[in-house]
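Side project, low priority. Logging it here so it doesn't get lost.
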Amino acid sequence: MMEIVTKYFTGLTDQQLDQFGRLGSLYEEWNSKINVISRKDIEQLYERHVLHSLAIAKIIQFTPGTTVLDVGTGGGFPGIPLAILFPETSFMLIDSIGKKIKVVSEVASALNLQNVKAEHVRVEDVNQQFDFVISRAVTAFPKFVAMVRTKVARVNNNSLSNGILYLKGGDFEEEISPFKQQVKVYDLQSFFQEEFFETKRLIHMTLKNK
């Protein structure tokens, strides 16, 4: 059902269409060996994982040369779909669970994604900075901010200020209240019509390191 991608993202190249089209069979194959996606969700892969990841592209078009760190990437979300969409952006996908990174590496290799680097490492042990840190709700937001705030570069090269792009569902007003001045929240239902996105949000938080 990759048509849900082309419904919202037009002008994809033949290579991108091929890469998105192959995601379904690749994840079915790898998920049967190493479970990284629930059985219910693998049937809804394109809606609940691929399109959900691509929500980030509804608020920013990464400029060539942008660097992005995907923390707690799991099976490769949101990093893999975004890497297909932005081939001139460099993505580092990390997870503390080695078998998940195995899946990420194999999928990236099968799709020939030259702009993806997958590493079995904790974010605390990453010794470089990036324009953006992305994630899909790996922990409570204040804890996530504390984990990644030193990983964001100072110089802005995009339409949005450098910082965090965080996909999250449900009620999280209390979690973001300490950061009100630095945060903007986007409702995903304003981008996508499907019922799944009614409670989904995207948080952009500006981080400025001295």
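Brief comment: The CA atoms of residues 115 and 126 lie 18 Å apart.
Revisit when time allows.
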